[in-house]
Amino acid sequence: MKNKKLLLFSILTILLCMANSFALAATINVSTVAELKAISDNVANGNTYVGDIVNLTANINLNGSSSNKWTPIGNATYPFDGTFEGNNHTISGLYVDNSAGYAGLFGKASSISYIQNVTVSGTVKGGTYLAGLVGYSNGRVENCTNNCTVTGLTEYIQNVGGIAGTYNNGKILNCVNTGDITGYKYVGGICGLGYAGEEIVGCENRGKITASFQANSLGNYLGGISGKSYGLDDCINRGKVVAPNNDYVGGIVGYCSDGHIKNCKNINATVEGTTYTGGIAGKADGVEGIQFCSNTGVITSSA
Description:
Structural class: mainly beta
Largest sheet: 28 strands, parallel
Shape: globular
Number of strands: 34
Strand content: 35-45%
Helix content: 10-25%
Radius of gyration: 21 Å
Number of helices: 2
């Protein structure tokens, strides 16, 4: 009898904890500039929205300019921890000018974050960890589009992408970049730099990828999809990759390290680099390597 009571008590405790967890979760509807800005302000002050859903219910024009700059949601100290559901809406007029880095609509998103179904357009300029959508992400990004022009503020800015500047141990799924992306090192249409454990699946780049430093700079890593990544599947690049005096330049990825590239295509996109320049990858290491990929672009190497 005593054991049964203990078992019943344990079950009730677990159910109570679960109920409290669900009760604490919230859905925050956002339809105005002020409401979106409040999300950014709250995260900066330590309310990172753990377990919550930020639900975009309308298109928002931020009307950004040099006198009306956007403060990214999340930073190195307080990353965004929630779910951002864009419901296929667009956030336009984004203007970010942040030399400190962690720049984009989001500055940093954690491993428990989920950003999906949103399009961003505007202008993003900044330091390292720079993108139209999220400067640095450890979480999951899905069905998002970047139409922003993304540019490193100085010629030595690295980790620059359309969707994510840096991506660590997560997935980017079914995302599109149409914006022109310019940076110094680790530059790509979808992601600038991906660490081990990340994977980019079903993404497409249509923007021009340009190296900001054109003077015999080795090991810069530029690609239509990613500058450097470990896993890429079913991706397409249609954007020109221009890095005539740079190393590790590819239509899909500059350097794939100890990973794989499968079912990817570089379609009629010119790729310009020096040594380690290719239609799919500048260089690819690892057991799986490149499988079932095709290139129809012109490849130019100045080596």
